[in-house]
Amino acid sequence: MLTLATVNPGEPEVFSSLQGEGPSMGRPSVFVRLSRCNLACRWCDTAYTWRFTGDNRPHRDEVAFERGENQIGLAEADVAALILLHEEDRLVITGGEPLLQGAALARMVALLKVTRPALHIEIETNGTVAVHPDLDPLVDQFNVSPKLAHSGNPTELALVPERLEAWARDPRAWFKFVVANASDLAEIAALQERHGIADDHLFVMPEGTASSILRERSRWLAEEALERGWRFTDRLHIHLYGDTRGT
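RESULT FIELD:
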């Protein structure tokens, strides 16, 4: 059984779009968004995957979502069947934190590979959870987004040294750091040095859910990336569709 987010009550969030961020930006992909997260970012744009009524962890919007309307459980075979309705050759598994459901994900991906063995599997993760051993060999790409201090998460929960070091050694892993202020850059540089993250696998991305904010932050962040030898990524889906579900 997998626990998914919903687009509308009872409608699982499985959709086709262009990948909006990171090394695959602009690629046509089918997305599946899972529910539940072990972290709580103040600026999270998918808080409907974790901040349910009764969850008082801080969020800038202070909105609580009804679990029954925003979360749905489906058998792995049913999720695979929904994905196979889409023609794209790349699957992006996002969340929430997908790796919390690693065993069920492994069963679902194995089913997909029977019908579509060349399907590229891309998983987005906050980098705190180890990959389930049955899932690991089925994944082509990990988009690892460690959460900095401005996310509001306790450091001991958000930045797990052994996990970051393991990701840094994995050639499938690409790091994507969300940047809100110039002061975040020193924290990224320290993490890079401490854990041996390669320049060409390190992306910086402006935080924001509006094109105007992204453009403003992109101007100085792109220059910083150029100077430091890092890679820059925008949030293409925000510019195209706004801050909406299923895009």
